Amino acid sequence: MLCSSKRKREPSPIHRAPTTRRQHQRRTTALVPAETFGLAAPLAPTAPRACPAAGAKVQGTNDSSIVSKCSVASLGYFQDAFLKHFVSKATRRAPLINRGYFIRAKAVDDSLHKFLQTFLHRKNQIISLGAGFDSTYFRLHHEGALSVTSFYEVDFPQLVARKAALIATTPELQTQLHNPIFHDVHASDIGLCISSNKYHLLGVDLKNLRTLEDVLHRIGLDFTLPTLLLSECVITYIDTPSSDALINWAGKTFPNGLFLSYEQVQPHDPFGIVMQQHFIKLNSPLNAIQTYSTMEKHCARYIQQGWQDSSAINMYQYYSQVLTSAERERIEAIELFDEFEEWHLKCVHYVVVAAFNGDCAAARDKLFPDINSPTKVSNSSEESQLLLTPSFLPLWSDLQSSTCLKQFSHASAQVPGTDNVLVVGGFGDHDGCHGRLDELRLIDMSKRKVGTLCPKSGAASLGPRMHHSLTALPDGRFLVFGGRTSPAKPCTDAYLLTLSGATWPPEYSLQPLTPPGADAAPCARWRHTASAVSLEGMERVCLIGGRDVDGTPLGDTWLMDIGSLMWKELNFEESSFEARHSHTATAWGDSCVVVAGGLGHGCTPLSSVVVINLQSLSLQKLNTSPALPPRYSHTAHIVHDQLILVGGVNPTHSTPPSLTVVDLTTGSVQSIDLQVSSVEYPLMLHNHTSHWRPEESCILVIGGGGNCFSFGTHLNRSPVLIDVREALQGR
Predict the structure, then answer these.
(1) What does the pLDDT read at residue 403?
(2) Mean pLDDT of 513-528
(3) What is the C-alpha separation between 529 and 541, in angstroms, rounded?
(4) What values do phi and psi take at 487, rounded to 5?
């Protein structure tokens, strides 16, 4: 969603922007040759004393932002030959972190280039506030993009001294400077560390605005020139009154200014809570995020502080609508990737905000091209908004909390004829360590206890897998199909699993099925669905979609005859069924399956509800009112012709979906808010499983969570019961 505001009028609810943290700073530019500074005799042109280059490189290694950006550059996400000089040892980050830093770097770099293109034939300046060990000046200068631009970097004196030492002892960096003079920033009365024709490094605390303005005056900066001030994950780490003062000062001081900031938003949903807790643990809390929690509030902030206009865009919008399809395909081909939920959640929690004064307003349309507005879901009346409070089940007394089903991307199924639920695999907690799980656990809901199953003596174990399916068959067995270990290693085996033994917990045994990929059998896949259905009095398993080994979403549908264990692919009269994965498929009536949501081609979240009639081999897309927002990685149940959708991810909207009830006979939609954002125990409703409990009119949610970008792994604390009686009354 784009966000835009202008002074002297209400900020318009448009959205655009990216976000990041204090250690993740980058660029700046300014324009004044060293000869015009009018300084007293400069200090000797050597690196600052008491700050050897080796020490500076250690500091660069400790800056996780620069290390992550170096990982991104080394893999070819973007080109920057200078980042490697600011770290002592390159470290390859996880694919999720690489993508996150790519879109951050891409959005900021595009904005810088568009500013420079706007003033291609006019002197201009870039001032990087809190630049850290950023390499932007060196890259842009090497590209020849700074012919009429002066570049200024500002940060704490101790930090810029280390950076200057590194530059002074690295020929590849020093050769990018014209007539450099190195000053002892601690001895300099104005905090100047490096001066040159194009590049200037200043050691000034950003909270000391008088000092900052005085230094800029004394080194000859022209405050009337078009000036871009860059704050990449910086000002949110300053206390809010001081960051407001900085924005206000910049707006008054630069009549032709552009303030570009990359920051975090949405602090109150579960992902936002985990994000905040991460920075609190690092002793660098996000100060501004509570006051300026949305893109609209960020835009309004700049107008309130004296800027003429402001716009913002989040990183999901930037990736999905600003980047070309060719660029997205290039990025997605660099390395194997399967963390869609956390990638999309990260993107909607980071924004780029820009504010404009004077001549810099000409750069606005270049920075923020028109994009489609996100889907907004609103109910026609407050009565249709139902607030429910999920009740947390207590941690069972015979288990430690660390082993209480804290996992995600697992599979689970009700044991026929019992009040037991079988949980298989996933990623989660095992004896205090996180990893892929090979455990089978059985929940006895009546006794509120959990047991870990072992294979029968001499029998093979199932082994670890994620994103697989577990289908309960009428004869008491279970079909285990698909899944993966890593995205490069799909599980090519399928099993019938049988529980046996009179003791608690029971043992299990496995019967291999025909390997997927053989003739007349589905190919290996994960993130698919496999539902037990009844067709013409015969029990079958209906397998739909999923993700292929090359990452492509699948659009095929298969039926397995439980008696013969033979597969048959179905061909429908219509060809309108969209390939997808991470969807739901729920049996309805005698011969129908209802497919909802999922991720389609191009990682597009889907909103469709499709009724598949297995008997007539026909498809019908349900028309909903209001329009059903897209979602994926959710769960679903059908109760009295009501499709209940639980959780999921919807990156096109700032609020994550909680619970939605769709009337399959009328198409009416009711959205329900769940209180999932407990600060102490946030509940992430994706990558979970759930089960309908008719005797209680409740939904049992098991597991859920994910590896939340660089903020660590979040595992839901325990199973949860959601009481949906009110939601179903009168429908």
Answers:
(1) 59
(2) 83
(3) 10
(4) -60, -20
